[in-house]
Task: structure prediction
Amino acid sequence: MSEARVHPASFRDPSGFVFEREGVLLRHVAPRYAEHYDWLLASGLYAELSEAGLLVPHRERPDLESPAGAAHRILEPERVEFLSHPYEWCFGQLRDAARLTLEIQRRALSRGLTLKDASAYNVQLQRGRPLWIDTLSFERLTPGRPWVAYRQFCQHFLAPLALMALRDVRLSSLLRAHLDGVPLDLAAALLPIRARLRPHLWIHLFLHARYQRRYAGRAGAPARELSQRALGQLVASLESAVEGLRWEPGASEWSDYYEGDSYSERGARHKRELVAAHLDAVRPQRVFDLGANTGEMARLASERGALALAFDADPACVERAWRRVRGGREPRLLPLLLDLSNPSPALGFALRERESWLERGPADAVLALALVHHLAIGGNVPLARLAELFAALAPELVVEFVPKSDPKVQRLLASREDVFPDYSREGFERAFSRRYEIAAAQDIEQSSRVLYRMRRR
Amino acid sequence: MPYVDPGTGSFVLQALAASLAGVLVAANGYWKRMKARLGRESGGGPDSDPPPTPPRD
Result:
C-alpha cells in the first residue's frame, strides 16, 4: 500500500481527518463519528445539501484502507480547484460564505442535525459559489443544547464583516492574525459607536463580547436550554445581522484603470488580441493573473477553458470582479485579494495549517500585465527578483514592459528620485533572460508598452 | 461530539439572544404591517418587502 500523507491542517477534529494517497484527497471517518455520519445520510440532509450545490459531494471508498487503523468510512470528496483562505476574500466573498453557513445550519436544524463548527475555513469558493467542504461538521441535534458553533460564527464571519462594512474594508487582514476569527472584544473596540444601534449586531457582537468577558474564568456555567424554534430564531437573527452589512466598492485609483490614459481604444484592443494569441499558443490549464484588476485579461484565459485566478491587492477591484462572476456566472474565473509585495504567508500551528500563497502554485502560465512597473519602481523590487518570483510560479509568462516614458511611470517617478538606471527595455530583457527565453515581443499599438511571451529555461 | 470550545459566555448568552431576536423579529413584522397598512391608506401599492431570506443568485 502506498504512502499516505495526512494533511497538516487536519488534526483538530477527532471525528476524522483528511489525507492524500497517490494524489487523491480522502477523508477518514472515525468510528466515534459513525452515528452522526449515518444520520447525515439517513436524514436526507447530505442529499439535499449536495444536490443544491451547498455541500461538497463525495463518494465512499470501501476499497481503500486508512493509514490510521479502522475507519467507519473512507470518503473521496470532489476536489477543490484552488484553495483560498478567508483573508484572501473580498467583502462579498466573505459575506456569501457567511450566508452559506447560516443556510446550512437552517437546513440542518430542520432535519435534526446541527453544525458543530462554523469556521470560515470550512468554506471554499468553487465555480463562483461558496461551498461547504467539511462533511464531518454535522452532528445529530441534542435537544435543548445551545448552538456549539455560535461563537465561531460570530468571530469568523460577523465580526470581520461588520468591521469591513462599518469601519474599513482592509480590516479583513485581521483574519491573518487571528485564525479563529476576530476576537469579539477586539471587534467591539474597533467598531464605531453607530454599530451598536443595529439591534441584531448589538446582540451578537457587543452583548456577546460582554458575556464572554463575564464568564471568562468560569468553566461550565449552567446555560438555559434552547428549543429548536429558538435555535431557528438565532439563525434568523444572525441572517438579519449579516444582511444589514453592505460595502460598496466606490471609486478607487485602480478600478478606473482601463479607462485612464494608458491605452487608446485601439491600443487596448491590440493588447487584448496579443494576450489572447499567446494564450492560444500556450493553452494553459491554470493561469495566475497577477495584478489582475477587475479580471478583464484573466477572463481571456477562463473563456479559453483555463482556471484563471485573478489576484489583486485592491479590495474594490476584487469586489467588482466577484460581483460579475458570483452565482456561477463565470465558473472558471476566481478573483482573490493578494498583495504581491506581501502575499499570504504560511500560518497556524508549526506554520503548517494554512499554506502560503506560493505553496498553492504552480500554475501553467502567469500573466503580469501592467504590473512590473508598480513592483519595480513603486515597490523598489529589482527586475531580476521579479523574474525569479514569476519563474517560481509557472513555466510560461506573458508580461508587459512599461517604459519610463509612459505617463503611468512618469507619475510614479514624479515625487521621487529616479534610482532605476537599469529600468529600460534592454535592462528588462537582460534581467529576465537569466530565467527566461523570450519567445515573442511586440509593441502595443499607440503606446510605448511592449508585450512579451517568455518560456522559463 | 463537538470539539471546538463553544465558549461559556456564548452558551449562556444564547437563550437570551434567541428571545431578544424573537422580539426583534416580531417587532419588525408589526412595523412592516403598519407600513403596509399606512401605505394602502394613502393610495400606495401592497407591501412588497421581500422576506429576510438570504438571496441566492
User: Anything to note?
Assistant: Chain A has three domains: 4-77, 86-243, 257-456. The longest strand of chain A covers residues 436-443. Residues 358 and 393 of chain A are 7 Å apart (CA to CA).
